[in-house]
Amino acid sequence: MTFEEFKNRARLFVIGALYPQEFQPFMRARKEFGAKAEAFVRECYALRDSFSLSMRPESSRDNLKRRVSSMARRHVST
What we know:
Helices cover 82% and strands 0% of the residues. It has helices spanning 3-14, 20-54, 61-77. α1 packs across α2. The longest helix is centred in the middle third of the chain and has 35 residues, at 20-54. It is elongated. The termini are far apart. The model has no long low-confidence stretch (mean pLDDT 87).
């Protein structure tokens, strides 16, 4: 696995989207690339966490209820 391939898989790894059959090769590459790999994985975790913290919560349950009801009505009418 090249480091570019490792980086692509690392992004999937930190969000839990790595296929099971990719896990062991990813972990071997992580060990092989050493400190450089660990730094990249830490960066991916930091980006993931920053993104999730930047999400604004729904302003209220009523808004969420209206959105879901609207989506359901549109689905039923099609």
